[in-house]
Amino acid sequence: MSLEDQFRPVSYSETTLTELMIPAYANFGGKIHGGILLSLMDKVAYACASKHAGAYCVTVSVDNVEFLQPVEVGEMVSMKASVNYVGTTSMVVGIKVIAENFKQGTVKHTNTSYFTMVAKDDSGIPTKVPGLILENRENIRRFLETIKRKELKSTYKYELDNARTRLSVDTDLYKLEKERCKLVAEFN
Ligand SMILES: CC(C)(COP(=O)(O)OP(=O)(O)OC[C@H]1O[C@@H](n2cnc3c(N)ncnc32)[C@H](O)[C@@H]1OP(=O)(O)O)[C@@H](O)C(=O)NCCC(=O)NCCS
Predict the structure, then answer these.
(1) Ligand 1 contact via 18 beta carbon (within 6 Å)
(2) Which of 82, 147, 151, 166 is most buried (most C-beta within 10 Å)?
(3) Beta partners for 64?
(4) Is 162 touching ligand 1 by the criterion CB < 6 Å?
(5) In terms of Cα–Cα distance, which of 89, 85, 79 is closest to 54?
(6) pTM given for the model
(7) Cβ(38) to ligand 1 under 6 A?
(8) Domains, the chain, ordered by start
């Protein structure tokens, strides 16, 4: 049986990446740069997806990155990744980010994001990935949730494309009246 006809359990590719937040990662406000966290998330998404696929993978899209709480220098950040869904050549990897402060004895959940990764063959063509064996209710819930998220994303994209087509700088100008912007003379 070839690799793409196989199924692999979620647990096979579950990956955790843990890293200490050092001063070099801080922004001018003394908190950790969002870009550092995004880079670590991309790494763990790659590790998780390529292990499931047994192939080189690329990042196609990233959903819902919202850093609701800052991460501080000295905290230990862990990124817990698992394949939540597989399509034909794509996989959705869910990543839960937590930051532990050993001095204060606190653990905070900073965000959960979803990376869509596509497996590629040696010629750079998308290649079929193994199916997913769902081992518990949480795996099933995440798979179902991803189907729903994909449906909503596609509806959102359709609506947004329509709205952009209908948008007119001339007829929609009044919508700016309550916004915090000013128009140069030629538009008044
Ligand atoms: C993503 C990419 C592989 C799609 O290539 P393509 O020739 O259009 O291939 P397909 O249309 O067959 O799509 C392949 C898979 O990607 C998925 N996909 C394509 N665009 C997508 C998007 N915007 N969001 C989510 N999934 C997407 C498709 O649904 C398909 O999944 P499936 O096989 O599970 O059904 C191609 O655009 C690419 O290589 N992009 C660059 C990725 C990269 O280099 N990332 C690193 C950051 S620079």
Answers:
(1) no
(2) 82
(3) none
(4) no
(5) 89
(6) 0.94
(7) no
(8) 3-134 (3.10.129.10)
Q: Report how far apart, in Å, the C-alpha atoms of 29 and of each of 72, 75, 102, 103 are.
A: 10, 16, 21, 21
d(CA 136, CA 52): 18
Q: Note the helical H segments in the chain.
A: 10-13, 34-53, 137-166
Q: Write out pLDDT tens, residues 18-70.
A: 999 999 999 999 999 999 999 999 999 999 999 999 999 999 999 989 988 99
User: Are 58 and 87 spatial neighbours (Cβ–Cβ below 8 Å)?
Assistant: no
CA distance to 19, 30, 39, 67, per residue, from 25 (Å):
11, 9, 11, 16
Give residue 142's identity as a one-letter amino acid code: R
Beta carbon of 65 within 6 Å of any ligand 1 atom: no
CA of 60 to the centre of ligand 1 (A): 6
Q: How many CB atoms lie within 10 A of CB 75?
A: 22
Name every residue whose Cβ is closer than 8 Å to that of residue 22 and which is 6 or more positions away in sequence: 73
Please state the atom number of ligand 1 nearest to the C-alpha of residue 87.
34
Joined together, the tokens standing for residue 124 give: 């750079």
Residue 78 near ligand 1, beta carbon < 6 Å: no
The predicted-structure confidence for 135-179, as pLDDT tens digits, reads as follows 999 999 999 999 999 999 999 999 999 999 999 998 999 999 999
